[in-house]
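User: We ran a pulldown and think these components assemble together. Before we commit to crystallization trials, I'd like a predicted model of the whole complex to look at. Sequences follow.
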Amino acid sequence: MHTYSENKIKAYQQENENRARLLIRCPDQPGIVATVSQFLHEHGANIVTSDQYTLDPEGGQFFMRIEYECPDLLKKKSNMEKDFSLIADKFEMNYDFMYVHDIKNVAIFASKEPHCLLELLWEWESGDLMANIAVVISNHETVREMVESRGIPFYYIPANPEIRKQVEEEQKKILEQYDIDLVVLARYMQILTPDFVKEYKNRLINIHHSFLPAFIGAKPYERAFQRGVKMIGATSHYVTDDLDEGPIIEQDIGRVDHRDDVAAMKKIGQEIERSVLSRAVKWHLEDRIIVHGNKTIVF
Amino acid sequence: MHTYSENKIKAYQQENENRARLLIRCPDQPGIVATVSQFLHEHGANIVTSDQYTLDPEGGQFFMRIEYECPDLLKKKSNMEKDFSLIADKFEMNYDFMYVHDIKNVAIFASKEPHCLLELLWEWESGDLMANIAVVISNHETVREMVESRGIPFYYIPANPEIRKQVEEEQKKILEQYDIDLVVLARYMQILTPDFVKEYKNRLINIHHSFLPAFIGAKPYERAFQRGVKMIGATSHYVTDDLDEGPIIEQDIGRVDHRDDVAAMKKIGQEIERSVLSRAVKWHLEDRIIVHGNKTIVF
Amino acid sequence: MHTYSENKIKAYQQENENRARLLIRCPDQPGIVATVSQFLHEHGANIVTSDQYTLDPEGGQFFMRIEYECPDLLKKKSNMEKDFSLIADKFEMNYDFMYVHDIKNVAIFASKEPHCLLELLWEWESGDLMANIAVVISNHETVREMVESRGIPFYYIPANPEIRKQVEEEQKKILEQYDIDLVVLARYMQILTPDFVKEYKNRLINIHHSFLPAFIGAKPYERAFQRGVKMIGATSHYVTDDLDEGPIIEQDIGRVDHRDDVAAMKKIGQEIERSVLSRAVKWHLEDRIIVHGNKTIVF
Amino acid sequence: MHTYSENKIKAYQQENENRARLLIRCPDQPGIVATVSQFLHEHGANIVTSDQYTLDPEGGQFFMRIEYECPDLLKKKSNMEKDFSLIADKFEMNYDFMYVHDIKNVAIFASKEPHCLLELLWEWESGDLMANIAVVISNHETVREMVESRGIPFYYIPANPEIRKQVEEEQKKILEQYDIDLVVLARYMQILTPDFVKEYKNRLINIHHSFLPAFIGAKPYERAFQRGVKMIGATSHYVTDDLDEGPIIEQDIGRVDHRDDVAAMKKIGQEIERSVLSRAVKWHLEDRIIVHGNKTIVF
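Assistant: Here's a predicted model for the assembly, 1196 residues in total across the polymer chains.
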């Protein structure tokens, strides 16, 4: 499977050698779209898709994502970036050029429950998750086999609140070693320190097993059962220092009824968790998400 | 429209003259189903649908709803009820016989926003809500015309926290006058006193404009917008003394995204509120709901 | 209610005096976005939202919808349109300028079943359907009262296949008299002649009570029941000469199970029909739909 | 993983040693429920769940599924079955006793696309599919590794319409060898002969990649794209001799829009196919499905 996935990714990189994405965020003002599209046109780039959004009530912020094709992109890109910096200065832009052939390196943190990890591995095996799953780190041995059998390095690092700092030091070393762009907490269930969160700001995605802000914190299915809700959900979000309060990327729900006990809710919930996390990770990999304060714009 | 609805209801009553529902709740033990179905068989009743549920972990509670047809039901029913009381004693049952031709009298409490009231009126006009909408009470004049034009009595009773007791006295008089079985709070937006809540226990349905327990209390759409959720919801529940904490009957959700401001969320939410409240009211009218502690069993 | 709706619409028109939409369709080529956005910028217009789509495999068609604000729009608009025609010529554009304060005149064709008509009337009463519902025409008297009580002219024109031509002559006269922009078939159930369809091309919306292309033609709920499907749906589409084959605007579905007979399916289906038709009509009114061949692009 | 799954299944068998299901189908008549529940009570069995349904318009057919617990079930069961045959004769019942600890032997037929096979394997690995996946047969080598690495026997049998009979002879031999109770066509894409279909009547489940009866036959995603639908679906059904016309077990749908080309529709569709097939197989394994004519009753 590993080979299958690798070949799919290589083919994808070749097909998309000339494709890039430009993400922009700046104060709203006249002429932004005209200037940016003129810039791309002059550099021989053709806009494939373009999305924009203006957040009025909170101070006129403008957000844009442009995906474009440009012949000989690899040769031209440094020049284009230099030229664009003048425009960016003028409009006070916060911006990123992302090149599709630069496949992101992903680390997955897992614990005992394998369903979210397995969904990501499986999407990756099928060639539907265009990333390099570089490493899996877990505080349990449970998932070692399913990781290593796919040719992915696995690190077992036991964790608990007392040794948090030390655990994170080990984790960070590994993340640096594999040059990780994105960390996915696939039901990792451990709280991270503010230092760690800061270092991976907007590059650290969690799945919470409730429809946030309902059931923040531990044991959401147990509490959903106690409350007698008729739907349960899952929420994928970027991690911040406030537990389960980071910018929400995606949510979904499923129906339950009085016959569903906690175990049944968990099973229904796991299917929701899998697909919600998988969508959130894909959107991040496709550079579709702009974080603004405590919210996400998903283009 | 009024006549259309009245004719539909009369036809429904005639068609269902011999139809009844038996709701049972008792400690679980062997032989309940055998005994009850034998009882119905001996009295010439034919079971049309039957649902049961046993809640194991919390003490072995047994719940059952049987809908049956019985020739000459109206003549037989008092005898059947008397005979059944022996069975009920033996199994320590909490039970209700409900007769389908006994159409329930419903009062709707409304405020300024008409969408939930309108949905109920409209379902009723179409002959899809088998109830007698006997009276509408509102603390605003806004909806008077849409109520009176349908031939339904309308009472305007201004309300605010200071005069709560006095307002409720007036309301109770009206509810008694119309012999009300069910009170529906169709976005009434006023808190009721424990006395009122107690008097209409399990007969007082509210619609809350959030996916409870998220956004309990005031201004849920504003808070959903601030939190950046990707879905909003509505919850219909029986009212208890704890604000928005009563037994949930039904919930549903709709998707929103970064483009939706508070006004857009409200519009999306109103469609959800309408259908969630309407389903909850119908299930109550069809005697499908058994309240157990802070939860509902919906058969 | 009529007054309420009228006031809402007037307020909406005033708020949106300077707002317009530009819909473009042309062969794909470099520089379109740059040129159009430059044009708007030079004329003092600020882009509020912009959506684009390129249909690659079928010949490189480019589609765009821009919503913009422009001070003194009413004074400037004829000049802008003239200036734009040069750009349009260069890029071989098919385009439309739509001004938000030009509220569209809508005629609704109804028959016996009122649910779709009522939904539209109700959305309109609530100020959520920004149109002038100018007239309702029906081949049955059933809905007269609900139309006239809202102050909307109602015309009863009996219809059957034999007198189709003559019926349509009468209908067309009324449509001209009220200067109708959009005709909505709210479960009208009569087939229209090719002449009529041609005259209202892309301005004639139907709701079909199945998930097309399943159950094309008559009695879809009966056939859904016979087939034993687990979901039923509704489809809103522009009408063409081929029965139920026109460009689909919106679809939705609901769950059914073995307990649902044809009557139950109809009730479940009616709620779906209502919301699907209502969404399709709103999108048309907001100039979100571009028809391309037998498909729609909905921005 | 194999061991994990085996242990889960063994634990499940032990837990459910005393649990059985009784499926009944007979002409409707008074006293069925009373008689059956009396029978179970007398034999010391306690009803855990019970579902019934009466199909009125088509001749008064009665359907029932009872799940019960009975101490020493394994010792008692042959006696119970013998005693029950008298009741069955009296009511002209078609019935089955199913014992939960009798885990069903499942064969999966696959082809090139692995997603449906993988979902089933994965659910099985997680202990969520309570079956013995005894063998996988495919007309391509693609999935060999993912099957064998899980310790499941894999047979490669090339197939095409010309050699259908001969291929099926080989397949049948294998199915007999493994004592197969259920055959799942996980996107097998080959038509089976009437003989084969007859032999596995109501034990042969297929997944069709469209919302049947829309897009019966080949290339449904291509045709959905051509038609411009706004939703695509998947349908799981028992196989009959009429292509894609067998009794539907489960369906689901997902939203698509104009941006989704055939490849995108396939990806969206694959996720739907996976979950629809998985639900259908689980319901079959849990003895929840009764086939009646060309429909299913799913309790």
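The domain at 105-298 of chain B is CATH 3.40.50.170 (Rossmann fold). That may be worth checking against your pulldown data before setting up trials.

User: Thanks, that helps.
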